[in-house]
Amino acid sequence: MLLSRPGGSPRLLLLGACLLWAQSCLSQQVLSGQKICYGDSTHPCYMIAYFQDLSRRVGFQEARQGCEMEGGGLLSLESEGEQKLIESMLQNLTKSGPGISDGDFWIGLWRSGEGQTTSSACPDLYKWTDGSSSLYRNWYTDEPSCGSEACVVMYHQPSANPGLGGPYLYQWNDDRCNMKHNFICKYGPEDILEKELGDRADAHHDVQATVPTKKPHDTSKPEDRFPVVVTETGGLIPNLIYVVIPTIPLLLLILVAFGTCCFQMLHKREARRNCFNDSSPLSSECLAEHLDSNL
Ligand SMILES: *[C@@H]1O[C@H](CO)[C@@H](O)[C@H](O)[C@H]1NC(C)=O
């Protein structure tokens, strides 16, 4: 039957609205880790951004902007103590909670000048993005390899077989800056302090190496905050959301179709009843009904 469907265009509108709504919900999933602080307020805080979903990992500059948007910077590692603290954070996240696995982390060490990559000077050209003058380094064997690699990650490949320099865990590697990785940010009151110290150090170049790092060597009492890892697609609930939201338009469509169908059946029945009640001048509708029922 070629009835014009009364619900046609509103249904399309409705469908469009549903799709738009679902899309805006999905795009609102912003990147938000949680800062974890150790010790008192003179110590920096850290944020580990780990993405289980490979497609959400980011390039170096994007990671840097991500940290700076929140008033911090990509992680600078200024002492072995600080390195060990981050290792411990990552270990704890690997073992428990949301459970992170393979995926390297950008840290705030890089070589900005592309031209000056010649020879043996290269390793000395790496600088901390937050202005720290710390000379602490924790390169993996044979790193940095320089060349086209100018941005540094902390290895985190717990399930990979160890290489020549041992497991690919926590030591540093330079990588191409547009590669996609997780990242770690550093925030805190020391940002200001560090700047002052840095400026002072710049004024007296001989003091540079002794820029103090009263860093969280003693991390005995971490505040009772839980590390929040950015894993939008990690848990069960986010996965459910991904499944449920796209099906909403479909469900609505089915509902509307069902409603239209019911309405038409009711309408038909009504028309038929009217025909029986008042059968004298057969309207075209009634005629159609009679023909229908006689067939
Ligand atoms: C890691 O976990 C251990 C044991 O729960 C805890 O003592 C330690 O402080 C944690 N390390 C960090 C950096 O949170």
Automatic annotation (TrEMBL):
Main subcellular localisation: membrane
Single Gene Ontology MF annotation: carbohydrate binding
Signal peptide positions (record): 1-27
Protein's gene: CHODL
Domain spans labelled C-type lectin: 45-186
SUPFAM superfamilies: C-type lectin-like
Compartment(s) of residence: Membrane; Secreted
Organism domain of life: Eukaryota
Name of protein: Chondrolectin isoform X2
Lineage, highest ranks first: Eukaryota, Metazoa, Chordata, Craniata, Vertebrata
InterPro entries given in the database record: C-type_lectin-like (IPR001304), C-type_lectin-like/link_sf (IPR016186), C-type_lectin_domain (IPR051505), CTDL_fold (IPR016187)
Keyword list, A-Z: Lectin, Membrane, Secreted, Signal, Transmembrane, Transmembrane helix
Membrane topology: Single-pass type I membrane protein
Residues spanning the membrane: 240-263
A GO term from the CC aspect: membrane
GO terms for biological process, alphabetical: positive regulation of axonogenesis
